Amino acid sequence: MTEKEINELVAAGEMLPLMEEFYTIQGEGFHKGTAAYFIRIGGCDVGCHWCDVKESWNAKLHPPTGVEQIVENAVKHSKTVVVTGGEPLTWDMTRLTGGLKEKGATIHIETSGAYPLSGIWDWICLSPKKIKLPTEEIYGVANELKMIIFNKHDFQFAEEQAAKVNEDCILYLQPEWSNREKMMPLIVEYVMQNPKWKVSLQTHKYLNIP
């Protein structure tokens, strides 16, 4: 297959730049503690300076992989599948989610929402970033809003984003891992004063699992 043909398949969502895939425990947000198969798609131009998966940014570093293969690998391990990145909505998710649905999977996505929503999702975790804001569409369908708190100014940004999501969306504040000791007391105090919010922790890092 030529490079041009591969690029065309990637553009159509029939192949995706697969960074890694693994079976583990969801560590964050509403579904923490749930066994799930993670599919990490390469490619992201949002560029958060504190991102802990910077190696996902350059899609060219990750081999284009056929959607059928990704689906088969996932459902062998779990019927709960989490698609993350990078920024997965950089790519057309229609064929991936369609294939997973045909196999009876429940599909979650973790996204900044910076690109148009594609695919069929059972749970949408929206984690907006200041650098590249979400599309208006995704605010109305997000199931949870996960705001990463790196400094005090992020509380204001969190409130701005919370004002845009639907009324059923669950609101989480999560400390950025490298600054957690400084920000955690502030998050606890903030949630106690503003109980519409909940605290989210990266429990997988405390448990030392992927």
TrEMBL record:
Keyword 4Fe-4S: yes
Highest taxon listed in the record's lineage: Bacteria
InterPro entries, A to Z: 7-CO-7-deazaguanine_synth-like (IPR024924), Aldolase_TIM (IPR013785), rSAM (IPR007197), rSAM_sf (IPR058240)
Gene3D superfamilies in alphabetical order: Aldolase class I
Known pathway: Purine metabolism; 7-cyano-7-deazaguanine biosynthesis
Keywords associated with the record: 4Fe-4S, Iron, Iron-sulfur, Lyase, Magnesium, Metal-binding, Queuosine biosynthesis, S-adenosyl-L-methionine
Binding site for S-adenosyl-L-methionine: 50-52, 86, 127-129
Residue intervals of the Radical SAM core domain: 31-210
Listed Pfam families: Radical_SAM
EC numbers: 4.3.99.3
Name of the protein in question: 7-carboxy-7-deazaguanine synthase
The organism of origin for this protein: Salinimicrobium flavum
Lineage start: Bacteria, Pseudomonadati, Bacteroidota, Flavobacteriia, Flavobacteriales
Record gene name: queE
